[in-house]
Amino acid sequence: MKYGLIKVAAAIPGVRVADVDYNVQQIESQIAQAEGKGAELIVFPELSLTGYSCQDLFRQQLLLDKAEEGLLVLLDFTRKLDIIAVVGLPVRIGSLLYNCAAVVQHGCLLGLVAKTYLPNYNEFYEKRWFASATDLIPQEIYLAGSPVKVSAEPQVFRTCDGACFGIEICEDVWAPLPPSNNLALVGADIILNLSATDELIGKHDYLVSLLAQQSARMMCGYVYSSCGFGESTQDVVYGGNALVFENGKSLVQGNRFSLQPQLCVQQIDVDRLRSERQNNTTFRTAQDGATARYIDCKPIMARDFELIREVNAHPFIPSDVMMAQSCEEILNIQTMGLVKRMQHTHQDKAVIGISGGLDSTLALLVVVRAFDKLGLSRKGIIGITMPGFGTTDRTHQNAVALMESLGITQREISIAKAVTQHFEDIGHNIKVHDVTYENAQARERTQILMDVANQVGGMVIGTGDLSELALGWCTYNGDHMSMYGVNAGVPKTLVQYLIRYMALLPIFSPQRDTLIDVVDTPISPELTPADAKGNILQKTEDLVGPYELHDFFLYYLMRYGFRPAKIFMLAQHAFKGSYDDATIKKWLQTFCRRFFNQQFKRSCLPDGPKVGSVSLSPRGDWRMPSDAISTLWLKECESL
């Protein structure tokens, strides 16, 4: 395991019912293939040594003895291999027969897990042949020449680098209280399921949903391997399900109904899972009273690391399939947050600065939606353009066009005269375009908005977004301040998609061309003069870096607490072909430095709605001292 990622495999071998020698050969072949692919852990279907559908042949001494011999062959085969294999077989313990999973590594039998819940309905009559794990008397037995402890006590297996896994068998996960519940609560990061699921109309979709929900509820990885072609089709058909899930998300699915063996290899992010559990107080509370026996696996030799998982370069952006639904959900959250605040404060007036940029455009559209929902006249929305030294015709025209077409109250108040006078008052040279020059304009605009709000008896709507808050790319007590910040939970990359989505809605069809042009306009605070042709010179992404990179860094830092080295590795993979390593490193350093240095701005944020899994509200998701030191993070960035 490196970077917290462990490579696992779900195998569907060729099988012949009751032909143990053949089945062992097939299993050996897939173990070797998986090890060659760098897998550290591989799981096979239920009763894979004999075949699941042997029925009353499980009462035959010859088959049971041969299954034990087959396990002995596998133990010998794995002596020089660097992989943990989990296979299924029937095992006699005392006077009873159990449906078991055997954990094999480096020629050793590390453990034996018996199935707990035995189906006894329809075509499945497992209780005819097998006893439940609950019937086990704690003891040490010899199996395939190896001593192994057996009991009904949950077992968690620990790899040498700290990843933990537990095992349940087929029907166990369908039970009201699956063994995986307890296994996850006592520390199993990954659940392996050896299964024999028959195919029925609609059953596969239900199975996928069940496993996704179980992996999400227990915040675990879930590796599922179920019998495939070769099992008896006397009454049912086994399609062969190779599935890997992580916290509710499907990472890989095999090809069902295949005539060929299948091997699905994927990486599970243990760091991510542990971060989820660590931050979830409900999970921690549920752990009370959970117990298990821990079994240490043998060391596995370090291997060259290769990331095989897909990494979404834009983790805040919904998938294409969910885009419209997700955008509408986000906008409803923003809208309803503002509606509640307006009702609570008995407001029918909202004051908002309109620059013609992304953030103020999104905020304006949210305010319009809120007024429409409340049945208020849009004339109660006072949109104010405040041209200054850097305002361009393009953004100004877009701002005016939006306000006119939306039917809100328009006001234009130039800040040039007031800021010039202010510079004279404080003795600042207007030709020096420094932080004073820029911030004075931002604060003048905020003063205008606040005073107009007092004048009309309304509230100032903040426009700043989540990405700007993360970078501190806002003027303290300038655009940093408002009476309600509707965009506070929306990252910059998502703002663009939300505006594009609304541009396609019939209600905003008159504004469509303007909205699209707003999205296509370079992002800028427009605080320094434009060039001779009136084009924007001060481009935010030239100064602080690409927002798609910063949003990527923000997501993995906040959502999972990943260290810079892991974020860098993920970014290399996600942005391959778009940014070289030096560029990613440069802006990751910038992000870490600014994220720490600018916390004081986030410590006194106005209220605003959370819309996703990441928020910087000092009252909710992020409580960080303004005096925290970034040395550890910057040193690791330097070492990349």
Task: Compose a concise summary of this entry.
This protein has 640 residues and is α/β, with parallel strands linked by helices. Helix 13 (492-503) runs antiparallel to helix 14 and helix 17 (564-574) packs across helix 18.
SSE layout and pairings?
Layout: E1 5-12, H1 20-36, E2 41-43, H2 61-77, E3 84-93, E4 96-105, E5 108-114, E6 120-121, E7 124-125, E8 139-143, E9 146-150, E10 155-158, E11 164-169, H3 179-185, E12 190-195, H4 203-217, E13 221-226, E14 242-246, E15 249-253, E16 262-269, H5 270-279, H6 281-286, E17 293-296, H7 323-344, E18 350-353, H8 358-374, E19 381-385, H9 393-406, E20 409-412, H10 416-426, H11 435-456, E21 459-462, H12 466-471, E22 484-485, H13 492-503, H14 512-520, H15 540-544, H16 547-560, H17 564-574, H18 581-597, H19 599-602, H20 631-639
Parallel strand pairs: 1-2, 2-3, 10-17, 11-12, 12-13, 18-19, 18-21, 19-20, 21-22
Antiparallel strand pairs: 1-16, 3-4, 4-5, 6-7, 8-9, 10-11, 13-14, 14-15
